[in-house]
Amino acid sequence: MSCVPKGYVKCxxxxxxxxxxxxxIYAQRHFTRSGVYEQIHVISGELMFYGYKNKQGEAxxxxxxxxxxxxxxxPKYWHSIVPLTDDIQFEIHFYMKA
Length: 98
Known about the structure:
- This is TehB/YeaR-like domain-containing protein.
- With 98 residues, this protein is mostly beta strands.
- The chain has one helix at 24-27, and strands at residues 8-13, 17-18, 36-44, 46-52, 61-66, 70-73, 78-83, 89-97.
- Strands 1, 2, 3, 6 and 8 form a five-stranded antiparallel sheet that branches. Strands 5-4-7 form a three-stranded antiparallel sheet.
- Strand 4 (46-52) and strand 5 (61-66) form a beta hairpin.
- The two termini are 22 Å apart.
């Protein structure tokens, strides 16, 4: 996927989530607010990142992420994530313009 643009800084990092403690919001279709990039970083296992044009409809993007891989979700981009393996561990970093 893409990169966080220059001039943006990490403003928040979630706890490390596993298959049994993923907040429901991440499995549902959601988006980050205007001006915020979301970086999903897989520590172990695998997950699927789905991207959507809007709140309804089929996924326009499906990205399988493995350990040490990341995906970036742009501001206001609808997306969801689904764990694929029992050993999944991931965290999410949020970036805003400095």
